[in-house]
Please model this.
Amino acid sequence: MNFKMMGRFIAQILSIEGFFMLPALLISLSHGEDMAVKGFLVALAAIGVGVLSLSLICRGAPSAFYAKEGLVCVGASWIAMSLAGCLPFWVSREIPVFIDAFFEIVSGFTTTGASILPEVESLSKGILYWRSFSHWLGGMGVLVFLLAFTGGKGQGFTMHLLRAESPGPNVGKLVPKMRTTAAILYIIYVILTILNILFLWMGDMPLFDSVCHAFGTAGTGGFGIKNDSFTSYSPYLQNVTTVFMILFGVNFSCYYLLLIREWKSVIRDEELRTYFCIILASVALIVWNTRGLYGTLEETIRHAAFQVASLMTTTGYATADFDLWPSFSKTILLCLMVVGACAGSTGGGLKVGRAMLIFKSLGRNIRQVMKPRKVMAVRNNGLVVPEKVLDNTNAYLSAYIIILFFSFLLISLDGFSTGTNFSAILACFNNIGPGLEAVGPTCNYSAFSDFSKLVLIVDMLAGRLEIFPILVLFSHYTWKND
Amino acid sequence: MNIIIAGDGKVGSMLTRQLSSEGHDITVIDSNSSVLESTVERYDVFAVHGNCASMDVLLQAGVKDADLLIAATSEDEVNLLCCTTAHALNPKLHTIGRIRNPEYTEQIYRMRNIFGLSMVINPENQAATEIDRLLKYPGFLRRDTFAKGRTEIVELRVGAGSKLCNVRLMDLESIVRCKVLVCAVLRDGSASAPRGDFVLREGDRVFFTALSQNLTTLLKNLGILTRRVRSVTICGGSKISYYLASRLKKSGISSRIIEKDYARCRELCALLPDTEIIHGDISNQELLESEALGKTDALVTLTGIDEMNMIVSLYAASQGVPQVITKLGHTGNRSIIDSLNLGSVICPRDLVCNNIVRYVRAMENQTGAALSVHTIADGQAEALEFLVDEHTLNIGKPLKEIRLKPNILLVSISHGATPEIPNGDSFFRQGDTVVVVDTNSREIIRQLNDIFA
Model:
């Protein structure tokens, strides 16, 4: 294990985080929020000390850096980043308990949006901004940012980092250079975010609110700045947010293909088609199931579409308390939570592409039982999917289910209802935010014990980083010297 | 003509035999000196030892004075380089290159000017085309098309209990109830042009000339079942199998390939999404029965081993598969092959040689040359298509007044777009195309006037 190299990476990531904390500090300063300013300054000081000591210790690191280092580095840097990121919450006393502050920032960076705060409107502006911005930074990934703007100096190992941090079964570069790939992803991300801010702002939302909500939407996070999330905003703002949530749930390489005018491959993309089909079908079913619940058809469709987009892309905003919807609609939403958004988007969950591969390979294996001699391949977009990818996907599914059930078992110690526990695990593991019943859209996670919160924190990180970077931290093979 | 044949393999040696017997000056290039020695011993040709893609060797073989170069080594890349180099040395040279790799076929055909290729030949693709054509009309052992697809010569075998058994040719029309002409009969391994009092016997292979639109009527009136082929089983995953399966897919026929090598199965599976690929050894009878026989309309054996193809075809025919097609790499001993019930026999090498010989004849005589030449009846007869021009003799005379050389038949006349199976009162005009069948293998018909006595 090349700890020194990892230390340098972590130092770089912490300095990026510190840099992004400056706008939040400025906002706090301009609003004269003394406690928040103190919180940010302490955090920046801690980051400064950490970066300095890490770069002193890790001088002259050897350059050997392989898949194992990549995985461990991603897991470790996310934990380090979260530890530094929660300091403003804790030091400013706005979230007085450390584990709560840690939960909140992990929920932010992993774009979950699960909160332990019963009430957010009393938080200071700087803290609110930092809370929302953590979604934006975590959505595309801070390592990708590092690669995009500091460059990997052309070394091949950067692929391990991108693969470990980017969601999806089959991560590839868009262009030969990793740095350019990462930059393209971030540019698309920034442009879409700015568009989102403009559209919200045009709908008479204050600029600060627009920025915070756009960050939450872009990262498919879900932290709002109002207690009732999106319920009190105008139908226009709700619809804009629906559209942008869906857009941020699309694989970003599709946007790149659109930019280079490869229309056909975008239109024919199987994952994209499936993604839109699932959204349309779910909206239709929920509209049918909740008919009569709202005054007009327009309102029914608006709420159904918003909730479907929010849960499918694992954002977690809400315009309606879907906990009050009929059971069929709630079950559809639970299923959408598991499926998640497209691979290569900022969304979480199992990913549409991965779910498709799982279904296809299952179908293939069933047919294989009946025709043992037939040679069959699983195809995606007409191309044969390598068996190794299928193996990884199935292994991912197993890991997913095992973690799901262990976490379910562990948090059930708190004595909440099965529905609450199950939906809480689903909502955290798939980076959504609100679940059902006691953790529904109008409630929060503050009632859980510290131990359960720790379990949920691990789940959130595992869900965001596609399980393996977190899983390897717990494996003794990782720490063996060889 | 001066012809250089590069590569003295299966195709090369067959071309050497055929073209030297037609009186051309042949130079053979090969890198294997013992093969060259035996060629020089058998045929009156000049041999050059070396790499045919190298300039020195080509110059030594007289590329400057050559009219045609045929590159038929086993390597596509060598053939390509050989043709390009030779063409650069002698821009007037015609070049024929054999390209077999499916990945190259399309692009090289399109870029043949860049490579200096006059013609690209692909034995596997040609064999697949031929098999595809046979599958369209189950019942015929072979089909050759003339007059832009309007006239055909088809081959039928007189089986036991066939309606053709013991029929005099002059009574044939009352049975088939459409106009056909028997242009050759192969009996006991020798071909002849039969007269009206000829009586067909069991085991004969008969070559009919018929209009393409009458083929269905012909089969129906002979009592041969003509159910459309819907599913085809292909034994062996060779290049021909790939070409065939992709062709069949275009015509909406489902196909199934059985291949022994698992890695090749995976490759085929990636290339052919709609074809069922089965991993297994066709020499295993149980596999053959469970996967192939009984539910297939046609079975094509395309493995690289002739003996395997023959055995599987024999077994399939005995199990009542309606149509069986066998690929053979060597057709040396025709009398043994004929005595077996192998269905249609396809030999890629023969197809390619036919094609090249046709090209050579067309080059040799720009005016009055055959439009196309087809070797039928195991190479004992030729069917040639000619254009009637102003130099042709006997224009406008009824056929009964024209005397033809022995064993030569005029089997079809096409006036513009209307084809005709001729009788004694038919005649041809300038601009028509005619098809002539020559069962006299000693004499070569170079132009149409050669057929008149």
User: Anything to note?
Assistant: The longest strand of chain A covers residues 374-375. Chain A has 22 helices and three strands.
